[in-house]
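Lay summary. Proteins are chains of building blocks that fold into shapes, and those shapes determine what they do. In this project we predict the shape from the chain. Here is one chain we studied, written as its sequence of building blocks.
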Amino acid sequence: MSWITARRRHPAAGYVVIAFVLVIIGTAYALITTGSASAAPQATSNSAQIAEGRNLFVEECATCHGLYAEGVNNQAPSLIGVGAAAVNFQVSTGRMPAAELGAENERKPPRLNAAETAAIAAYIQSLGGGPTVPSAAQVSSAGANIGLGQQLFVADCAACHNFVGAGGALTYGKDAPPLTASTPTQIYEAMLTGPEAMPVFNDLTITPQEKRDIIAYVTTVRAEPNPGGFSLGRVGPVTEGLVAFLGLLLFMVLAALWITAKHGKAHE
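And here is the predicted shape, written in a compact code that computers can read:
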């Protein structure tokens, strides 16, 4: 052991120890990230699909987003790194391709079919990675906890989307869209990518299982009956208060007209 003691006092011994520790840390990190990547489902796209997506992108999207998806100042953001999930959400909900600037915020019938959407998503995914389109297993409500999904939705989503996903108004003229027509895949993608004013809920903020719980609640509450009678759009107390105010105002007007008419007959 004397040779170890002698070399331990060498001026370069400290640097050797640091380099050895860094190698161990780097190896451990590589093993962990490789295991996580292999466990996560990855979307496979062949070169033909990517090439088709490139052609469609040039035809439908390059005018605003740039020829290589680099973005155009004050017009459209870069799409490098946004991932296939963001593209699939925007295109499948008809928000993109937009006919004009400012027309991309509202849901519309999709302009491209599913195959064309998948091709563009594959092309954008090939440019810089990003969140992939969730699989059917990831968005399945099988075994989901609807009660927990309701709690999570009320805590994280209801402030904008209303307690039953009916949508609502935001500041600066924006609005949170209703979720009544959203598919489970689109809901999952919205949580992953945070479109418009919506924050990003990554898998550390809301776990994949909790996302499935939220999807189960949103899709279940659509079919629930309205035990109170008229739903009034199911947008909460603002609409109910407005209807009550207008109803009371109408009653007072009719009462005033009746009293006036009765008083006039008595005077005659």
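What the prediction tells us: The CA atoms of residues 153 and 214 lie 6 Å apart.
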